[in-house]
Amino acid sequence: MRVEPHAQPELIPASLPVRTFTGADQPDVDILRRCIRCGLCLPSCPTYLETFSEASSPRGRIALINAVSEGQLDVTDSGFVEQMYQCLDCRACEAVCPSGVQYGQLVETARTQIERARPRPGWQRAGRAAVFGGIFGEARRFRAVNAALALYQRTGAQRLARRSGLLARFGLARMESLAPALPATYVAPAGQVYPPLAGVAQRGRVALFTGCVMSTAFAETDRATIRVLNANGFEVVLPEAQQCCGALTIHSGEMDGGRALAMRNIEAFEVSGAEYIAVNAAGCGSTLKEYGALLADFLEWAERARAFSERVRDITELLAGLLDEGALNTRFAPLPLRVTYQEPCHLAHAQRITRQPRALLGALPGVELVEMEEASLCCGSAGVYNVTRPAMADALGDRKARNILASGAQAVVTANPGCALQVRAALARAGSDMPVLHIVDLLDAAYRGRLP
Ligand code: SF4
Ligand code: SF4
Predict the structure, then answer these.
(1) pLDDT tens digit sequence for 133-156
(2) Could you give the domains of the chain?
(3) Torsion of the alpha carbons at 342, 347, 353 and 357, rounded to the nearest 10
Protein backbone atom coordinates (compact mmCIF):
# COMPACT_ATOMS: atom_id res chain seq x y z
CA MET A 1 0.00 0.00 0.00
CA ARG A 2 0.99 3.63 -0.38
CA VAL A 3 1.26 5.53 2.92
CA GLU A 4 2.30 9.08 3.56
CA PRO A 5 6.07 9.53 3.34
CA HIS A 6 7.36 10.10 6.83
CA ALA A 7 10.62 11.09 8.34
CA GLN A 8 12.32 8.49 10.49
CA PRO A 9 13.15 9.97 13.90
CA GLU A 10 16.81 10.54 14.60
CA LEU A 11 18.50 11.32 17.85
CA ILE A 12 19.65 14.90 17.47
CA PRO A 13 23.24 16.05 18.15
CA ALA A 14 23.95 16.99 21.75
CA SER A 15 25.03 20.49 20.71
CA LEU A 16 21.45 21.48 19.83
CA PRO A 17 19.04 22.39 22.63
CA VAL A 18 16.60 19.55 23.24
CA ARG A 19 13.15 20.31 24.54
CA THR A 20 11.64 17.55 26.57
CA PHE A 21 8.17 17.26 28.14
CA THR A 22 7.30 20.03 30.58
CA GLY A 23 4.48 21.16 32.84
CA ALA A 24 1.14 19.38 33.17
CA ASP A 25 -0.10 16.51 30.99
CA GLN A 26 3.13 14.59 30.43
CA PRO A 27 3.39 10.94 29.38
CA ASP A 28 3.48 9.02 32.65
CA VAL A 29 7.01 7.72 33.31
CA ASP A 30 5.66 4.77 35.31
CA ILE A 31 3.58 3.68 32.30
CA LEU A 32 6.60 4.10 30.01
CA ARG A 33 8.68 1.90 32.29
CA ARG A 34 6.08 -0.85 32.16
CA CYS A 35 6.88 -1.59 28.51
CA ILE A 36 9.17 -4.64 28.42
CA ARG A 37 9.57 -4.39 24.62
CA CYS A 38 8.12 -7.86 24.11
CA GLY A 39 6.48 -6.90 20.82
CA LEU A 40 3.23 -8.76 21.50
CA CYS A 41 1.32 -5.64 20.53
CA LEU A 42 2.78 -5.42 17.03
CA PRO A 43 0.36 -7.80 15.22
CA SER A 44 -2.60 -5.81 16.62
CA CYS A 45 -1.35 -2.44 15.42
CA PRO A 46 -2.98 -1.29 12.15
CA THR A 47 -0.17 1.08 11.16
CA TYR A 48 2.43 -1.62 11.78
CA LEU A 49 0.43 -4.12 9.72
CA GLU A 50 0.33 -1.64 6.85
CA THR A 51 3.98 -0.53 6.99
CA PHE A 52 5.93 -3.25 8.84
CA SER A 53 8.06 -0.43 10.20
CA GLU A 54 9.18 -0.60 13.84
CA ALA A 55 8.78 3.17 14.18
CA SER A 56 5.12 2.77 13.17
CA SER A 57 4.49 0.15 15.88
CA PRO A 58 3.38 0.69 19.49
CA ARG A 59 6.76 -0.47 20.77
CA GLY A 60 8.55 1.92 18.42
CA ARG A 61 6.34 4.82 19.44
CA ILE A 62 6.81 4.09 23.12
CA ALA A 63 10.59 4.12 22.54
CA LEU A 64 10.24 7.54 20.89
CA ILE A 65 8.18 8.93 23.75
CA ASN A 66 10.77 7.56 26.12
CA ALA A 67 13.56 9.22 24.13
CA VAL A 68 11.82 12.60 24.43
CA SER A 69 11.14 11.97 28.10
CA GLU A 70 14.86 11.30 28.69
CA GLY A 71 15.97 14.35 26.72
CA GLN A 72 17.47 12.44 23.77
CA LEU A 73 14.92 13.64 21.22
CA ASP A 74 13.26 17.02 20.83
CA VAL A 75 9.51 17.11 21.42
CA THR A 76 9.01 18.84 18.07
CA ASP A 77 11.30 16.47 16.11
CA SER A 78 9.55 15.89 12.79
CA GLY A 79 9.86 12.10 13.02
CA PHE A 80 8.43 12.11 16.53
CA VAL A 81 5.54 14.37 15.54
CA GLU A 82 4.88 12.20 12.48
CA GLN A 83 4.65 9.02 14.54
CA MET A 84 2.46 10.54 17.25
CA TYR A 85 -0.01 11.57 14.55
CA GLN A 86 0.34 8.52 12.30
CA CYS A 87 -0.91 6.53 15.30
CA LEU A 88 -4.71 6.15 15.20
CA ASP A 89 -5.03 6.14 19.00
CA CYS A 90 -7.10 2.99 18.45
CA ARG A 91 -5.63 1.41 21.59
CA ALA A 92 -5.54 -2.10 20.14
CA CYS A 93 -2.01 -2.32 21.57
CA GLU A 94 -3.30 -1.44 25.03
CA ALA A 95 -5.86 -4.24 24.98
CA VAL A 96 -3.29 -6.97 24.28
CA CYS A 97 -0.35 -5.70 26.33
CA PRO A 98 0.66 -8.21 29.04
CA SER A 99 2.35 -5.44 31.06
CA GLY A 100 -0.72 -3.23 31.22
CA VAL A 101 0.83 -0.31 29.31
CA GLN A 102 -1.90 2.33 29.08
CA TYR A 103 -0.86 3.51 25.67
CA GLY A 104 -3.74 6.01 25.31
CA GLN A 105 -2.35 8.09 28.19
CA LEU A 106 1.06 8.16 26.49
CA VAL A 107 0.01 9.22 23.01
CA GLU A 108 -2.65 11.72 24.08
CA THR A 109 -0.31 13.55 26.44
CA ALA A 110 2.53 13.36 23.90
CA ARG A 111 0.29 15.13 21.38
CA THR A 112 -0.63 17.73 23.99
CA GLN A 113 3.07 18.37 24.65
CA ILE A 114 3.73 18.70 20.91
CA GLU A 115 0.90 21.20 20.47
CA ARG A 116 2.15 23.30 23.38
CA ALA A 117 5.75 23.29 22.11
CA ARG A 118 5.56 23.63 18.38
CA PRO A 119 4.94 26.90 16.63
CA ARG A 120 2.04 26.82 14.17
CA PRO A 121 1.34 29.41 11.49
CA GLY A 122 -1.41 31.87 12.41
CA TRP A 123 -3.93 30.42 9.96
CA GLN A 124 -3.50 26.95 11.50
CA ARG A 125 -3.94 28.31 15.02
CA ALA A 126 -7.06 30.16 13.90
CA GLY A 127 -8.39 27.04 12.16
CA ARG A 128 -7.90 24.87 15.24
CA ALA A 129 -9.49 27.48 17.48
CA ALA A 130 -12.48 27.68 15.13
CA VAL A 131 -12.93 23.90 15.00
CA PHE A 132 -12.22 22.90 18.61
CA GLY A 133 -13.25 26.05 20.45
CA GLY A 134 -15.89 27.28 18.01
CA ILE A 135 -17.70 24.32 16.47
CA PHE A 136 -17.06 21.48 18.93
CA GLY A 137 -16.83 23.84 21.89
CA GLU A 138 -20.54 24.68 21.92
CA ALA A 139 -23.27 22.20 20.97
CA ARG A 140 -25.62 24.91 19.69
CA ARG A 141 -22.97 26.16 17.27
CA PHE A 142 -22.28 22.60 16.13
CA ARG A 143 -25.96 22.14 15.31
CA ALA A 144 -26.09 25.52 13.53
CA VAL A 145 -23.11 24.55 11.33
CA ASN A 146 -24.84 21.26 10.55
CA ALA A 147 -28.05 23.06 9.64
CA ALA A 148 -26.07 25.20 7.18
CA LEU A 149 -24.43 22.07 5.78
CA ALA A 150 -27.81 20.39 5.35
CA LEU A 151 -29.00 23.42 3.39
CA TYR A 152 -25.87 23.24 1.24
CA GLN A 153 -26.56 19.56 0.54
CA ARG A 154 -30.20 20.08 -0.32
CA THR A 155 -30.27 23.26 -2.38
CA GLY A 156 -28.00 22.20 -5.24
CA ALA A 157 -25.10 24.27 -3.88
CA GLN A 158 -23.27 21.02 -3.27
CA ARG A 159 -23.55 19.95 -6.91
CA LEU A 160 -22.40 23.37 -8.03
CA ALA A 161 -19.42 23.41 -5.64
CA ARG A 162 -18.35 19.91 -6.71
CA ARG A 163 -18.54 20.79 -10.41
CA SER A 164 -16.75 24.12 -10.05
CA GLY A 165 -13.57 22.55 -8.67
CA LEU A 166 -13.55 25.11 -5.85
CA LEU A 167 -13.57 22.41 -3.16
CA ALA A 168 -10.41 20.82 -4.55
CA ARG A 169 -8.79 24.24 -4.89
CA PHE A 170 -9.30 25.00 -1.19
CA GLY A 171 -8.33 21.48 -0.10
CA LEU A 172 -11.87 20.72 1.07
CA ALA A 173 -12.85 18.03 -1.45
CA ARG A 174 -12.09 15.04 0.76
CA MET A 175 -13.68 16.49 3.88
CA GLU A 176 -16.78 17.40 1.90
CA SER A 177 -17.04 13.96 0.30
CA LEU A 178 -16.91 12.26 3.73
CA ALA A 179 -19.68 14.40 5.22
CA PRO A 180 -22.80 12.30 5.74
CA ALA A 181 -26.15 13.21 4.18
CA LEU A 182 -27.74 15.28 6.93
CA PRO A 183 -31.37 14.79 8.00
CA ALA A 184 -33.89 17.62 8.15
CA THR A 185 -34.27 17.57 11.95
CA TYR A 186 -31.87 16.98 14.82
CA VAL A 187 -32.10 15.87 18.40
CA ALA A 188 -31.59 19.03 20.47
CA PRO A 189 -31.42 18.15 24.18
CA ALA A 190 -33.55 20.53 26.22
CA GLY A 191 -34.51 18.50 29.28
CA GLN A 192 -37.09 16.36 27.42
CA VAL A 193 -38.34 13.32 29.32
CA TYR A 194 -39.54 10.19 27.46
CA PRO A 195 -41.62 7.83 29.60
CA PRO A 196 -41.06 4.08 29.61
CA LEU A 197 -43.35 1.86 27.59
CA ALA A 198 -46.50 0.83 29.45
CA GLY A 199 -46.76 -2.83 30.32
CA VAL A 200 -43.05 -3.50 30.83
CA ALA A 201 -41.17 -3.62 34.13
CA GLN A 202 -40.07 -0.09 35.12
CA ARG A 203 -36.32 0.33 35.64
CA GLY A 204 -35.74 3.93 36.59
CA ARG A 205 -34.22 6.87 34.80
CA VAL A 206 -31.43 7.00 32.22
CA ALA A 207 -29.88 10.22 30.92
CA LEU A 208 -28.97 10.02 27.24
CA PHE A 209 -25.72 11.52 26.02
CA THR A 210 -26.96 12.65 22.62
CA GLY A 211 -23.53 13.43 21.10
CA CYS A 212 -22.52 15.84 18.31
CA VAL A 213 -22.55 13.63 15.23
CA MET A 214 -25.12 11.26 16.75
CA SER A 215 -27.64 14.01 17.45
CA THR A 216 -27.32 15.48 13.94
CA ALA A 217 -26.19 13.09 11.17
CA PHE A 218 -27.42 10.09 13.19
CA ALA A 219 -30.43 11.76 14.81
CA GLU A 220 -32.63 8.80 13.85
CA THR A 221 -30.31 6.48 15.79
CA ASP A 222 -30.59 8.75 18.85
CA ARG A 223 -34.39 8.52 18.52
CA ALA A 224 -34.13 4.74 18.12
CA THR A 225 -31.99 4.64 21.30
CA ILE A 226 -34.72 6.45 23.24
CA ARG A 227 -37.37 4.03 21.91
CA VAL A 228 -35.26 0.95 22.74
CA LEU A 229 -34.58 2.22 26.28
CA ASN A 230 -38.29 3.04 26.74
CA ALA A 231 -39.17 -0.46 25.47
CA ASN A 232 -37.01 -1.82 28.27
CA GLY A 233 -38.69 0.14 31.03
CA PHE A 234 -36.31 3.11 31.28
CA GLU A 235 -37.49 6.68 31.50
CA VAL A 236 -35.11 8.68 29.29
CA VAL A 237 -34.09 12.27 29.93
CA LEU A 238 -32.02 14.47 27.59
CA PRO A 239 -30.15 16.89 29.89
CA GLU A 240 -29.98 20.40 28.55
CA ALA A 241 -26.56 22.10 28.29
CA GLN A 242 -24.75 18.85 27.49
CA GLN A 243 -21.81 19.33 25.16
CA CYS A 244 -19.46 17.38 22.91
CA CYS A 245 -17.66 14.72 24.97
CA GLY A 246 -14.28 16.25 24.08
CA ALA A 247 -12.81 13.16 22.36
CA LEU A 248 -11.74 14.91 19.15
CA THR A 249 -10.35 17.84 21.11
CA ILE A 250 -8.31 15.64 23.47
CA HIS A 251 -7.08 13.34 20.69
CA SER A 252 -5.87 16.41 18.80
CA GLY A 253 -3.67 17.51 21.69
CA GLU A 254 -6.05 20.13 23.13
CA MET A 255 -6.30 18.68 26.63
CA ASP A 256 -7.45 21.94 28.26
CA GLY A 257 -10.29 22.31 25.77
CA GLY A 258 -11.32 18.72 26.51
CA ARG A 259 -11.35 19.44 30.24
CA ALA A 260 -13.58 22.49 29.77
CA LEU A 261 -16.12 20.32 27.91
CA ALA A 262 -15.88 17.61 30.57
CA MET A 263 -16.71 20.12 33.33
CA ARG A 264 -19.75 21.37 31.44
CA ASN A 265 -21.01 17.83 30.86
CA ILE A 266 -20.55 16.89 34.50
CA GLU A 267 -22.65 19.89 35.53
CA ALA A 268 -25.29 19.13 32.91
CA PHE A 269 -25.73 15.49 33.96
CA GLU A 270 -25.44 15.95 37.73
CA VAL A 271 -28.90 17.50 37.84
CA SER A 272 -30.51 14.77 35.69
CA GLY A 273 -31.37 12.48 38.61
CA ALA A 274 -30.49 9.50 36.41
CA GLU A 275 -28.89 6.31 37.62
CA TYR A 276 -27.06 5.76 34.34
CA ILE A 277 -25.72 7.92 31.53
CA ALA A 278 -26.34 5.98 28.32
CA VAL A 279 -24.21 6.58 25.26
CA ASN A 280 -24.51 5.11 21.77
CA ALA A 281 -21.18 6.25 20.29
CA ALA A 282 -18.15 4.18 21.31
CA GLY A 283 -15.71 7.08 20.97
CA CYS A 284 -17.81 9.33 23.20
CA GLY A 285 -18.40 6.58 25.77
CA SER A 286 -14.71 5.90 26.11
CA THR A 287 -13.97 9.59 26.74
CA LEU A 288 -16.86 10.02 29.19
CA LYS A 289 -15.62 7.02 31.16
CA GLU A 290 -12.20 8.68 31.43
CA TYR A 291 -13.36 12.02 32.86
CA GLY A 292 -12.30 10.71 36.27
CA ALA A 293 -8.68 10.40 35.08
CA LEU A 294 -8.85 13.60 33.04
CA LEU A 295 -9.81 15.69 36.09
CA ALA A 296 -8.04 13.68 38.79
CA ASP A 297 -5.68 16.58 39.63
CA PHE A 298 -8.43 19.21 39.81
CA LEU A 299 -9.49 19.23 43.43
CA GLU A 300 -13.04 20.52 43.14
CA TRP A 301 -13.76 18.33 40.10
CA ALA A 302 -11.97 15.05 40.82
CA GLU A 303 -14.75 13.43 42.85
CA ARG A 304 -17.54 14.75 40.64
CA ALA A 305 -15.73 13.49 37.52
CA ARG A 306 -15.20 10.06 39.06
CA ALA A 307 -18.87 9.82 40.03
CA PHE A 308 -19.89 10.91 36.52
CA SER A 309 -17.68 8.32 34.81
CA GLU A 310 -19.00 5.54 37.03
CA ARG A 311 -22.52 6.17 35.77
CA VAL A 312 -21.61 5.95 32.06
CA ARG A 313 -22.76 2.86 30.15
CA ASP A 314 -22.51 2.07 26.49
CA ILE A 315 -25.98 1.21 25.23
CA THR A 316 -24.88 -2.36 24.42
CA GLU A 317 -23.47 -2.73 27.94
CA LEU A 318 -26.73 -1.57 29.49
CA LEU A 319 -28.97 -3.76 27.33
CA ALA A 320 -26.74 -6.85 27.47
CA GLY A 321 -26.82 -6.48 31.26
CA LEU A 322 -30.61 -6.88 31.06
CA LEU A 323 -30.18 -9.81 28.68
CA ASP A 324 -27.84 -11.52 31.16
CA GLU A 325 -30.43 -11.08 33.92
CA GLY A 326 -33.17 -12.46 31.67
CA ALA A 327 -34.81 -9.03 31.87
CA LEU A 328 -34.43 -7.75 28.29
CA ASN A 329 -37.70 -7.08 26.50
CA THR A 330 -37.54 -9.80 23.83
CA ARG A 331 -40.75 -8.97 21.98
CA PHE A 332 -38.75 -8.91 18.75
CA ALA A 333 -40.16 -9.57 15.31
CA PRO A 334 -37.93 -11.84 13.20
CA LEU A 335 -35.55 -10.00 10.87
CA PRO A 336 -34.11 -12.33 8.24
CA LEU A 337 -30.64 -10.80 7.87
CA ARG A 338 -27.06 -12.09 7.82
CA VAL A 339 -24.85 -9.49 9.46
CA THR A 340 -21.21 -9.06 10.35
CA TYR A 341 -20.04 -6.95 13.27
CA GLN A 342 -17.40 -4.23 12.90
CA GLU A 343 -15.90 -3.59 16.33
CA PRO A 344 -15.36 0.10 17.10
CA CYS A 345 -11.86 0.45 18.60
CA HIS A 346 -13.06 2.58 21.48
CA LEU A 347 -15.65 -0.03 22.38
CA ALA A 348 -13.49 -3.14 21.97
CA HIS A 349 -10.08 -1.85 23.08
CA ALA A 350 -10.70 1.20 25.25
CA GLN A 351 -13.86 -0.09 27.00
CA ARG A 352 -13.23 -3.83 26.47
CA ILE A 353 -16.83 -4.36 25.34
CA THR A 354 -16.84 -7.16 22.78
CA ARG A 355 -19.23 -9.82 24.07
CA GLN A 356 -22.24 -7.59 24.69
CA PRO A 357 -22.98 -6.42 21.12
CA ARG A 358 -22.67 -9.99 19.85
CA ALA A 359 -24.96 -11.27 22.62
CA LEU A 360 -27.59 -8.70 21.62
CA LEU A 361 -27.32 -9.64 17.95
CA GLY A 362 -27.67 -13.28 18.99
CA ALA A 363 -30.92 -12.42 20.78
CA LEU A 364 -32.56 -11.13 17.60
CA PRO A 365 -34.64 -13.82 15.89
CA GLY A 366 -33.73 -14.28 12.24
CA VAL A 367 -30.46 -12.36 12.53
CA GLU A 368 -27.42 -14.48 11.74
CA LEU A 369 -24.03 -13.16 12.84
CA VAL A 370 -21.07 -14.11 10.67
CA GLU A 371 -17.64 -13.01 11.88
CA MET A 372 -15.31 -11.21 9.49
CA GLU A 373 -11.52 -11.46 9.60
CA GLU A 374 -9.85 -8.72 11.66
CA ALA A 375 -13.19 -7.49 13.07
CA SER A 376 -11.36 -5.50 15.75
CA LEU A 377 -8.72 -3.94 13.47
CA CYS A 378 -9.27 -0.19 13.12
CA CYS A 379 -11.22 0.79 9.98
CA GLY A 380 -9.18 4.00 9.64
CA SER A 381 -11.85 6.42 10.83
CA ALA A 382 -10.27 7.44 14.16
CA GLY A 383 -11.92 10.82 14.69
CA VAL A 384 -10.55 13.22 12.09
CA TYR A 385 -7.81 10.80 10.97
CA ASN A 386 -9.62 9.92 7.74
CA VAL A 387 -9.49 13.62 6.83
CA THR A 388 -5.95 14.40 8.01
CA ARG A 389 -4.22 11.13 6.97
CA PRO A 390 -6.08 10.02 3.83
CA ALA A 391 -3.58 7.43 2.49
CA MET A 392 -3.39 5.33 5.66
CA ALA A 393 -7.11 5.82 6.39
CA ASP A 394 -8.06 4.61 2.91
CA ALA A 395 -5.67 1.65 3.07
CA LEU A 396 -7.28 0.54 6.35
CA GLY A 397 -10.78 1.26 5.04
CA ASP A 398 -10.14 -0.82 1.91
CA ARG A 399 -8.75 -3.63 4.05
CA LYS A 400 -11.91 -3.52 6.16
CA ALA A 401 -14.16 -3.51 3.06
CA ARG A 402 -12.37 -6.61 1.71
CA ASN A 403 -12.91 -8.44 5.00
CA ILE A 404 -16.58 -7.42 5.15
CA LEU A 405 -17.26 -8.54 1.59
CA ALA A 406 -15.43 -11.84 2.16
CA SER A 407 -17.65 -12.60 5.18
CA GLY A 408 -20.74 -13.14 3.03
CA ALA A 409 -22.82 -10.78 5.20
CA GLN A 410 -25.78 -8.80 3.84
CA ALA A 411 -25.23 -5.89 6.21
CA VAL A 412 -22.58 -4.52 8.57
CA VAL A 413 -23.44 -3.64 12.13
CA THR A 414 -21.34 -1.29 14.24
CA ALA A 415 -21.71 0.97 17.28
CA ASN A 416 -19.92 4.19 16.43
CA PRO A 417 -20.79 6.92 13.90
CA GLY A 418 -17.22 7.41 12.66
CA CYS A 419 -16.88 3.69 11.85
CA ALA A 420 -20.24 3.69 10.06
CA LEU A 421 -19.24 6.59 7.80
CA GLN A 422 -15.76 5.22 7.12
CA VAL A 423 -17.02 1.70 6.35
CA ARG A 424 -19.77 3.07 4.08
CA ALA A 425 -17.19 5.09 2.12
CA ALA A 426 -14.81 2.09 1.86
CA LEU A 427 -17.59 -0.23 0.68
CA ALA A 428 -18.63 2.35 -1.92
CA ARG A 429 -15.04 2.48 -3.23
CA ALA A 430 -15.21 -1.32 -3.51
CA GLY A 431 -18.43 -0.98 -5.55
CA SER A 432 -20.74 -2.24 -2.79
CA ASP A 433 -23.87 -0.56 -1.43
CA MET A 434 -24.15 -2.94 1.51
CA PRO A 435 -26.10 -1.30 4.36
CA VAL A 436 -24.11 -0.23 7.42
CA LEU A 437 -26.29 -0.12 10.52
CA HIS A 438 -25.88 1.01 14.09
CA ILE A 439 -26.74 -1.88 16.41
CA VAL A 440 -29.50 0.20 18.02
CA ASP A 441 -31.13 0.68 14.62
CA LEU A 442 -31.35 -3.08 14.30
CA LEU A 443 -32.77 -3.57 17.81
CA ASP A 444 -35.30 -0.82 17.21
CA ALA A 445 -36.23 -2.37 13.87
CA ALA A 446 -36.78 -5.72 15.56
CA TYR A 447 -39.12 -4.11 18.14
CA ARG A 448 -41.00 -2.33 15.35
CA GLY A 449 -41.02 -5.36 13.07
CA ARG A 450 -39.48 -3.79 10.00
CA LEU A 451 -35.99 -3.61 8.54
CA PRO A 452 -34.32 -0.22 8.97
S1 SF4 B 1 3.49 -2.09 24.85
FE2 SF4 B 1 3.14 -3.98 25.97
S3 SF4 B 1 2.90 -5.54 24.36
FE4 SF4 B 1 3.86 -3.75 23.41
S5 SF4 B 1 6.07 -4.12 23.54
FE6 SF4 B 1 5.52 -2.94 25.38
S7 SF4 B 1 5.08 -4.48 26.95
FE8 SF4 B 1 5.07 -5.55 24.99
S1 SF4 C 1 -3.01 3.04 19.33
FE2 SF4 C 1 -3.40 1.74 17.52
S3 SF4 C 1 -2.22 2.68 15.85
FE4 SF4 C 1 -1.46 3.55 17.79
S5 SF4 C 1 0.29 2.27 18.34
FE6 SF4 C 1 -1.49 1.39 19.38
S7 SF4 C 1 -2.31 -0.17 17.99
FE8 SF4 C 1 -0.90 1.13 16.80
Answers:
(1) 889 999 999 999 998 888 888 888
(2) 29-117 (1.10.1060.10), 122-178 (no CATH), 193-319 (3.40.50), 332-448 (3.40.50.11810)
(3) -40
